[in-house]
Amino acid sequence: MNHQSTECPKVIANALAEVQSKIKTIGFDSNNEFAKYKYVSIDKYYEVVRPLLVDAGIMIIPDEEDSSVSEDRKLYKTRIRFTILHKDGAYWDFPIRRTVILPYTGAQSCGSALSYAEKFCMRTLFKMTTGEEDADALAPQNMAILTQAQKDQIDKLLDKAKLSEVELMRLYEWLKVGDLHQVSPEQYENLIGALKRKANSDGKR
Length: 205
What we know:
This protein is of the alpha+beta class. The chain has helices at residues 10-22, 42-56, 108-125, 148-161, 165-175, 185-203, and strands spanning 4-5, 30-32, 37-39, 58-69, 75-86, 91-103.
């Protein structure tokens, strides 16, 4: 029977519950030597989640709904839609959407954005624990807006550091922001320190 309704088909609801009941904490599997922190890669998510999806008979299908590059060609924004499909043909016509904003560096930005969105999707859908700090762990007073001088300093050091696409993505994951200008004053000091270390290490080569 082919279910096509915004109401979640029972076979999919049962499958999702099955996967969620078996999900364990994902340990860090990668290190960012640049920013000095550990993180969970997309490959680790696949390693943990894929066997459970296969056993439950469901697939999570991504589809890019919209994407754009900012006028100054510094940022790439995309909205990814995820649809859940059961192996018997049923699907839940209530797509999950995730929006990602990251530095625009060319065609690689598309793949990086998809990986980032997939991690968000799996983590929230199955309530996966990773040990990573939540964005809302910051105290309210940490949400102050940076001054223009601080934003200019970030841009200046970012140009000097010449980060790769992978390093940029890891930096965004570390800081839990979609724009480096959105960091808190406390995060700002860590960001500046990391960018300076990277810029200095490149200058010594």
